[in-house]
């Protein structure tokens, strides 16, 4: 498409308002993002960044219908009717650019902006961050640092401007504080979702764009103290315990089990006992089973079995 200088066509309907960024100061090696407004009738059109002083001979750096690569990035917010170009690793030769809308049946239209590149020193007008987040109903503060002279301004791109000390933009209170040297502070209070968008600090003939993103205030979860429920453990007989719940036994437990069996056998085979060997062996087998069922309560179980058997067979009287 042929290139044609027609700034009024690109920004039709924005007369009397801040049309956009015309000149920024950037330190060599840094990055900068520039918002470019366009008329709603160009929503579906291709937009691009053109590099060069002359609009007729400038070269296309990046387009919205092509994948961004290298030092130049571009994105199109069709809802807000603004496309944003980003220049990374700014060099001394990055001085003249055009925001351009491609016209399908006619000459393309663009607006010019200039990049003033500084080396070895801070830029003439700058901010800490070009993107700032705030919450609905809250406030956000932007510090604009400057080295030049001129009147301080805070403007919404494509909207009104506020000068010190207090004013409003679309119903949102704006306060500009110039008490500190070489910096003026902008505070926006009572933020609304529609306050999201591009603004810029201005001092003299320089601007520095700032994108404000307003979000919903994060909710705070409420925790209620719940009393702990105490449950008494059930007493389960070893004979009713599931196999999977029984304590495991290893070879290391074998000596203890064998020692227990020897003690039982010795106790049963007392000189005064006249019970058959079969009954004594039965007692030993039952005792071994009890030991395997619960290693923790093995001593209690063994004594209980021994007491029960002796009681049934009248050996308690003989032992005493």
Structural class: alpha+beta
CATH superfamily of the largest domain, by name, is: Immunoglobulins
CATH class of the largest domain: Mainly Beta
Q: Globular, elongated, flat, extended or rod-shaped: what is the shape? A: elongated
- Helix tally equals 5
The CATH architecture term of the largest domain is: Sandwich
Cα gyration radius (Å): 43 Å
Q: Which stretches are poorly predicted, pLDDT < 50 over at least 5 residues? A: 1-16, 227-275
> Mind describing the biggest β-sheet?
5 strands, mixed
The third-level CATH topology of the largest domain is: Immunoglobulin-like
Domain count? 3
Terminal CA distance? 120 Å
What would the average pLDDT be, to the nearest integer?
78
Helix content: 10-25%
Oligomer: single chain
Instruction: Tell me what portion of residues adopts beta-strand conformation.
Output: 25-35%
Keywords: Membrane, Signal, Transmembrane
Biased composition (Basic and acidic residues): 243-257
Protein name: Immunoglobulin domain-containing protein
Biased composition (Polar residues): 220-242
Question: What features would you describe in this structure?
Answer:
The chain has 320 residues and is of the alpha+beta class. The chain has 3 domains: 23-118, Immunoglobulin-like; 125-215, Immunoglobulins (Immunoglobulin-like, Sandwich); 274-313. Helices cover 18% and strands 33% of the residues. The chain has 5 helices and 18 strands. The chain has helices at residues 7-10, 254-268, 277-293, 298-313, 315-319; strands at residues 23-27, 32-37, 47-51, 59-63, 72-77, 82-87, 96-101, 109-118, 125-127, 131-135, 139-146, 152-156, 161-162, 166-169, 172-177, 183-189, 197-203, 206-215. The strands form 4 sheets. A 5-stranded mixed beta sheet has the order 1-8-7-3-4. Strands 9-11-16-15-14 form a 5-stranded antiparallel beta sheet, with no helix packed on it. A 5-stranded mixed beta sheet has the order 10-18-17-12-13, with no helix packed on it. Strand 3 (47-51) and strand 4 form a beta hairpin. Helix 2 runs antiparallel to helix 3 (277-293). The longest helix is centred in the last third of the chain and has 17 residues, at 277-293. The protein is elongated and about 120 Å long. The chain starts with 6 loop residues before the first helix and ends with a helix. Residues 1-16 and 227-275 have low confidence and may be disordered.
């Amino acid at each position: 498409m042929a290139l044609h200088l027609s700034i009024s066509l690109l920004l039709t309907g924005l007369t009397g308002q801040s049309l956009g960024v015309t000149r920024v100061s950037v330190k060599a090696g840094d990055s900068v993002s520039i918002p470019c407004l366009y008329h709603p009738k160009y929503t579906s059109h291709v937009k691009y960044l053109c590099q060069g002083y002359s609009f007729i001979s400038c070269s296309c750096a990046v387009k919205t219908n092509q994948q961004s690569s290298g030092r130049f990035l571009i994105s199109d917010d069709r809802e807000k009717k603004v496309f944003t170009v980003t220049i990374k690793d700014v060099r001394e030769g990055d001085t003249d650019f055009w925001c351009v809308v491609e016209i399908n049946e006619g000459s393309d239209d663009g607006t010019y902006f200039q990049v003033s590149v500084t080396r070895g020193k801070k830029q003439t007008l700058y901010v800490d961050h070009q993107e700032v987040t705030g919450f609905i109903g809250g406030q956000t503060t932007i510090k604009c640092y400057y080295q030049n002279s001129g009147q301080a301004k805070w403007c919404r791109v494509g909207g009104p401007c506020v000068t010190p000390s207090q004013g409003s933009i679309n119903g949102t209170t704006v306060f500009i504080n110039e008490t500190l040297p070489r910096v003026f502070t902008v505070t926006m209070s009572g933020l609304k979702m529609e306050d999201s968008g591009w603004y810029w600090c201005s001092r003299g003939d320089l601007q520095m764009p700032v994108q404000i993103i307003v979000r919903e205030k994060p909710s705070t979860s409420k925790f209620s103290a719940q009393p702990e429920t105490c449950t008494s453990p059930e007493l389960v007989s070893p004979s009713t315990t599931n196999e999977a719940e029984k304590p495991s036994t290893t070879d290391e437990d074998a000596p203890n089990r064998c020692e227990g069996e020897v003690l039982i056998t010795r106790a049963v085979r007392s000189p005064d006992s006249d019970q058959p060997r079969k009954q004594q062996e039965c007692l030993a087998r039952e005792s071994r089973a009890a030991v395997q069922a619960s290693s923790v309560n093995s001593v209690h179980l063994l004594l209980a079995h021994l007491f029960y058997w002796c009681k049934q067979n009248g050996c308690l009287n003989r032992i005493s």
